[in-house]
Amino acid sequence: MTAVKTETSGGAIEIGGLRKAFGANEVLRGIDLRVASGEVVCVIGPSGSGKSTLLRCVNLLEEPTAGTVRVGGVDVTAPDVDIDAVRRRIGMVFQSFNLFPHLTALGNVVIAQRKVLRRGRAEAERIAREQLEGVGLADKTGSYPAQLSGGQQQRVAIARALAMGPEVMLFDEPTSALDPELVGDVLGVMRGLARPGEGRGMTMLVVTHEMGFAREVADRVVFMDGGVVVEEGPPARVIDDPAHERTRTFLSRVLDPAAARVGETD
Amino acid sequence: MTAEPVEAAAPGGLSRRRRRQLSLGGQYGLFLAVVVLVALLADWDRLRANFANRDVARDLFPDIITVGLRNTVVYTAVGFGIGLALGLVVALMRLSPVAPYRWFAAVYIEIFRGLPLLLIFIFITVGVPLAFGSPAPGGAVGQTGLALGLAGAAYMAETIRAGIEAVPKGQTEAARSLGMSAGRAMSSIVIPQAFRIVIPPLTNQLVLLCKDSSLVLFLGIVLEERELTKFGRDLAGQVGNTTPIIVAGVCYLIITIPLSLLARRLEARQRRGRR
Prior knowledge:
The structure holds two protein chains of two kinds.
Chain A: E1 13-22, E2 25-35, E3 40-44, H1 51-58, E4 66-71, E5 74-75, H2 83-88, E6 90-93, H3 105-115, H4 121-134, H5 150-162, E7 168-172, H6 180-194, E8 203-207, H7 211-217, E9 220-225, E10 228-233, H8 235-240, H9 245-255, H10 257-263
Parallel strand pairs in A: 3-8, 3-9, 6-7, 7-8
Antiparallel strand pairs in A: 1-2, 1-4, 4-5, 9-10
Helix pairs in contact in A: 3-4, 3-5, 4-5, 5-6, 9-10
Chain B: H1 4-7, H2 16-41, H3 44-51, H4 54-60, H5 63-94, H6 99-114, H7 117-132, H8 139-166, H9 169-177, H10 182-212, H11 228-239, H12 243-273
Helix pairs in contact in B: 5-6, 5-8, 5-10, 5-11, 6-8, 7-8, 8-10, 9-10, 10-12, 11-12
Pfam family, one (chain A): ABC_tran
Main location (chain A): membrane
EC number (chain A): 7.4.2.1
């Protein structure tokens, strides 16, 4: 896979005492998490553990109930913060791609550059072509999302986020909606982003169920359950030698689907 | 229906299939009898002279096209344009986080959907001059466009609102996460998709407005401002013949049937293309 070009080196993400409640339902119960500049952190955990909500609090798609989130030194939860300016520096990739269906692949990567960064058409298209080439889709610039496979759509979505020159990238289960044979291409692009041939990699916070990817690429793995961080550490320790029973139970289900099916009671 | 097998062997000992054949035969027979009766009893010469009089029809041209059809198209287009612009504004107000906007939009929609269009026409042509001392601007085109637009906007606002709500929430989230403001995400990402969704219902709305433009009949308008219906009625009165009304009707169908077919095709295409 070709290396993905990034324009800025990564900024750090610092999350302190983060809480989020939807009505009476408290989804995040005090999260402390630091992702250093250029670091890749994978968040794993059972569904409903608050992983996606955590990610969505970082770029304020969900407003935290309490706590602080700092991205590249800026407190994004400050009341006077320019939320649009903050989001410009944070790239987000969604489980369901969320490409704009009325625009071509090129148009998807161009539009926010033009409308938000006020780049000229020629410049925006040049950057878009570079980014699409970087994710291996140089020949798909004129295709509409409906004409692309899921894996191709997700790679366009990554190019779309990168074209804005973000300091950090958030990935919300980027491969969960993909057919198994298409997962590899997307993970390959993410690997190239985390470990470029030269220079420092992108700061990445990745919610994923891909244990192989986490083990290989992550600097740290965070296991969440019930709205709290149960344990965190190097992938080799958290995935291969977890300290907590909840982590062991979760991993045995994820790593061995047959055991999961037997163990599932609900 | 489900009871049929039980009765099948009952009266006359006829099989189900045989009884169905008899029933179908009876229906065809009745149809044929009515056609024959009408053909025999109708006074065809009189009908032809009154409804399809070639001389009367010939005299209608070219004015029924250059004045009547043209004005119908102009009134419809202006009304649709005003209705669409106003409808988009009302739809956005209906979805606004600002409560008074939502209330205003809701009241507007209920009022203009609840009133007969004729009353709105009379309000514009009689009420506005009485209230403001001068008629609404733009002559017949302005007044008709305003009346059709005010009413059409209420229906179109609901259609557009449904279209905007049909665009998945993830689209707005993706746009916002790229740093777009709420308004920018709405105008660049959501509304273009919403319009694709509402093109078929809006086409149907256009057909309705085209027919409703006939209410100009009740305005005091000069000869050159007559549209199809008024043109047909005036001419029918002048020559004492029904043909002008028939020709005017055909002119409407030339507009409305292709538009309806178009709307149906767009709908079918959209159903197939659903992601």
